[in-house]
Amino acid sequence: MNKEKDTYLTIDKPSPEILYKDRKSKFFGYVFPITTEDDVKPIIEKLKKQHHTANHVCYAWQLGTDTIRYRANDDGEPNNSAGLPIYGQIQAYDLTNVLVAVARIFGGTKLGVGGLISAYKTAAQIALDEAEIKKKIITKLYTLTFDYKDMNSVMRVIKQKKLDIVSQKLEANCTYVISVRKTKANEIFTIFNTMQYIKIKD
């Protein structure tokens, strides 16, 4: 049965630095939570300063739940030998809204493309093993507008359906922003939409 998914896996805080060694090359691995593509550049620049002797800081990221966006960057390593193996681990752990970066300090022995793929994949995997992965619920926000006299009716539905009130504004009339699980969104919209005098919009 194809049930619509309304949860996703991500992290809330950066993982601890890990170190993986392969033939004297050092691979430092990291996982960071991100919310937009703009978060990526400052993190990578900081890692390049932190590891100023690193020859490459390769990375991959993924964002979104419905529409997925991602990028893999080899940072001068042979094509697809670093960024994609890192991205493959993000997919293997089924994560989103994350950036995984691996800084490599060359140890004098060339690893070859196969060796690089294996090393970047392993460093990313170890870093992800150290990350604290959380399951989060995909929600949709609705805005309800109604008169004070209808507040009891609105609150009854909110309590029955265990909905979260994100914000409320009580002026000439009442405006509530409510958070609804994605899989319940249509049902909740229909309930409020059929209630007289209550306006609902997303």
List keywords for this structure.
single chain, 202 residues, alpha+beta, Ribosomal Protein S5, domain 2, Alpha-Beta Plaits, 2 domains, five-stranded antiparallel β-sheet, four-stranded antiparallel β-sheet, 35% strand, elongated
Question: How would you characterize the overall build of this protein?
Answer:
This protein has 202 residues and is α+β, with helices and mostly antiparallel strands. It folds into two domains: 7-136, Ribosomal Protein S5, domain 2; 139-201, Alpha-Beta Plaits, CATH 3.30.70.240. Helices cover 29% and strands 35% of the residues. It is built from five helices and eleven strands. It has a five-stranded antiparallel β-sheet, sandwiched between helices. Strands 9-10-8-11 form a four-stranded antiparallel β-sheet, with helices on one face. Strands 1-7 form a two-stranded antiparallel ribbon. It starts with 6 loop residues before the first strand and ends with a strand. The model has no long low-confidence stretch (mean pLDDT 90).
